[in-house]
Amino acid sequence: MGFALPIYADASLEPPDAIPSVERVSPRSVRISVTDRCDMACVYCRPSMNEGYLPAEDRLDVDQWERLVRGLMASGVRRVRITGGEPLLFRDIVEVVSRIAALGIDDLAMTTNASQLAKVAGKLRDAGLQRLNISIDSLDSERFARMTRGGDLREVLRGIDAAAACGFDDIKTNTVVIRDENEGEVEAITQWAWARGITPRFLEVMGVGEGAKIFRTRLVPYGEIQDRIAHLLEPATPRVDDDRGPARYLRSRDRKHRVGFITGTSDTFCAGCDRLRVTSDGMMRACLSKNDGVDISATLGPAAPPNDLGAALDEAWAMKPDSAWRGCTEPTAADVSMRGTGG
């Protein structure tokens, strides 16, 4: 058996009585959702492709994103991840990357479904993007289309190959493992990623938004995921990377590769969370599992006082839960739009 994190024992995934309080930390990272648009409707994210989107005029523009990151850096934020929706559908995405990179941020990364990546991978790298996380839940074209409600695996694979040729500092894949769907592909995805110099990561389905409808019955716990590839891995305790989020990693037996696990349901990794999130319409949120936030759009105009953003950050950060918070298993998580908030 693999090293197993504690799973809430009963069917309702209720936590034990004694949960350590969340350590209050300072915000160090931000996920900016540059658009709520997406060309896929993954079964754990969106109910269908027919949801409405924000009008373009209600989304932040390039200048506003630059002002946002500049202001957050002044308050101590050092890492930026660009998300969506699908961020490559944002018309000026290369310009956004270029502007943020020019500010001297320590770490600039992006999460994408790679459907548009073949066309812009080189431009993104040249603009200063350092790292990529690419969502891919299956290597079987029919299953992929089913899980994404219409996604074209061929386009995604072309995008991944293009990115791999561009010399990014790091490329990882994100695979959400769903019971009776793609759990049998864990080893195949691992071997496929390693062959391309990519680090595969496997995620438990979380009870956020559409995922709240399936996570209690279709969760594949981290321990089971690890067991499926234990013969490929060095026997050790998984470790997180310093200053790089909650994923835990193990090395391959030959120590040439790694694999990551993200345990959003069995171990909600709220303790020590240093993330802010900003939506495409300018809502700053301190927790993925709540819709609470502060509208900062008015603070991002050219004439806004420079201290307004810092005050808004403090207000949003004060909303971060602590004590016995259960992260993505909290009832509030079901009301969050992953597409709108950004994964």
Number of separate helices: 10
Distance between the termini: 30 Å
Query: How many E-type strands?
Result: 12
Structural class: alpha/beta
Looking at CATH, the homologous superfamily is Aldolase class I
Q: CATH class, please?
A: Alpha Beta
> What number of domains?
1
Q: Can you give the mean pLDDT?
A: 89
CATH T-level topology: TIM Barrel
Strand order of the largest sheet: 7-8-9-6-5-4-3-2-1-10-11-12
Shape call: globular
Order of helices and strands: EHEHEHEHHEHEHHEEEEEEHH
Portion of residues within helices: 25-40%
Please give the largest β-sheet: 12 strands, mixed
Q: Percent of residues in beta strands?
A: 15-25%
Low-confidence stretches: 1-22
Question: At CATH's second level, what is the architecture?
Answer: Alpha-Beta Barrel
Descriptive overview:
It is a single chain. The chain has one domain (29-341): Aldolase class I (TIM Barrel). Helix 1 (62-74) packs parallel to helix 2 (93-102), helix 2 runs parallel beside helix 3 and helix 3 (117-127) packs parallel to helix 5 (153-164). The protein has 343 residues and is of the alpha/beta class. The chain has helices at 62-74, 93-102, 117-127, 141-148, 153-164, 186-195, 215-218, 222-228, 308-317, 338-341, and strands at residues 29-33, 79-83, 107-112, 131-135, 170-177, 199-204, 239-240, 248-251, 258-262, 275-278, 283-285, 294-295. The model is unreliable at 1-22 (pLDDT under 50). The chain is 26% helix and 16% strand. Strands 7-8-9-6-5-4-3-2-1-10-11-12 form a twelve-stranded mixed β-sheet. The longest helix is centred in the N-terminal third of the chain and has 13 residues, at 62-74.
